[in-house]
Amino acid sequence: MKSVSKIIVLVVVLVTTFSCQNDNSPNYQYFPNMYKPIGYEAYGEYDVFPNSQEALLPVKGTISRGHSLYEYENTNEGYAAALSELKSPLGVSQLNAKRGKELYDIYCGICHGTKGAGQGKLVKREKILGVPSYADRDITTGSIYHVIYFGKNSMGSYANLLNEEERWQVTAYVETLRRELKK
Amino acid sequence: MKQGFKFYAPSKLLSTGLFFLTIIFTSLFAQDGDPVKGKSLFNANCAACHQLDKKMTGPALRNVEARLSETEGLDRAWLNSWIRNSSAMIKSGDAYANKIYAEYNGSAMTAFPQFSDEDINNILAYTAKEKAAPAVAVVGTSQATVESSSGVSQEIVLGALAILFGLLALGLFLVNKTLRRFASANNVEIAEAIKRKSLWKAFVQNQFLMLVAAIFFLLSSAYFVYGYLSQVGVDQGYQPIQPIHYSHKIHAGDNGIDCKYCHSSARVSKHSGIPALNVCMNCHKSIYEVSESTGNDEYSKEFYDGEIKKLYDAVGWDDANQKYTGKTKPVKWVRIHNLPDFAYFNHSQHVTVAGLECQTCHGPVEEMEVMYQFSPLTMGWCINCHRETNVKVQDNGYYEKIHKALSKKYGVEQLTAAQMGGLECGKCHY
Fold this sequence. Notes:
A: 183 residues, mainly alpha, Cytochrome Bc1 Complex, Chain D, domain 2, 8 helices, 0% strand, B: 430 residues, two-stranded antiparallel sheet, 2 strands
């Protein structure tokens, strides 16, 4: 009978050990105060911030470093103005077609297709429909940049995914694709 | 003629009349367009902003021609000129054009001057088609029965096996009992086991064996203690439940969306950021439900649709009116990959400069329905990769000099990250 009780104790110990192995919670740490940051980490939750959110929008009326003011408004008039007058600040020597293609393939190619004909993977799989070919639209450098910045109709804004220089690189690459399609 | 009518039964007459009426009406509205061609035109040109039964950027277009002629008294000519150049109509002061323009917050419809009358005919024929009856329920039930029946048959097999084993055990017990009874009846003595010194006692009395056993026991427990201690603080396999069930398999795997589409800051900053919800809305403004084929045995289509609803709720998107309400609820995603504060890691250094694939460290994310930590993220793991990975030194004018000097120093053609100083303590701990 003694051995039976021993076996039971062993089984209970093993069961509790293995059932505590849980993928849903992180492992415990040795000296956790070495692990935890003292400063505010990105996406952290701290009481000093509104809604305890460390991730905040820039203060209204300020422009972050490396960014500049975009003067056209997100309206039809703004679009028309950008279409007719906005030009790229990048000179020919600053344009990098390879980077433009890389960025285009990541952010635009998924819907507009790597050729710009509106046949991206999401369109082919019929997840998103009605993506036009660049050749079918009267677009200019300014209007392409404007649409990347604000989005249009179903397309969202890409201003937070691409910085200013990257947006102009992509704009230049879209124009290249459009020329290719028009041939 | 009069005689001819006599042959028709009244019900037949009615149905024939209806038939002709339908033909007249359909030909009036659709003018014999080809709905199949219309569908491909619609999908290529209109579907970005319009759906048949749901308000999107523009209004729902099911039976648009009939609706306009009934409620607004507008004819095909009006529709033609609207489709070909809506902004000119708005400028000309057309009452309904201005009304619809204002109703959809001044989003201007793209002009389609390239559409011929036939194209518009075909598109309108497609919009005039009756809504297909949902075939979902039938498919769902048949699948359910198939599943449940396979579940039942498995249970039956298991139960039968259990009963069989029970019967076998009972049979053996009975045979044993009968044999013993026979033995006692025939006065056959069953030899009792001879009392010997037990194996256990002999083992304990042998000092050499005891010593070996003790050493073995100590070594093996040291092995287990070492293994236990070295996994403290390691979260490999950590798979928390997220507030919204986001499937990397569907997004990055099936649909082939690049990791950097959502995690764009991995290119340019220390963190590979969690995408803001507006990035989700880039696509989910249009994708308000998953397709039939996306639902699987584990997670149904309804489940996924519910998760998209959660996204709309969090970002404050009113799907019915296609508007942001402004009431947002930030999603508290659970962070999976976490380095201790005393170790510095920079994503852009690895993603942009080294050009590593995300999968090198994060594993086959495109196959993960639920995200988990693939790598141990221990220092040994980092160091190992730095020792094995060659640095791309080609076409890098900026570091040409130091690359040459180091290659000479180590006498190698290809430098590893370790030889570039990737093992120095201060690179990550400062």
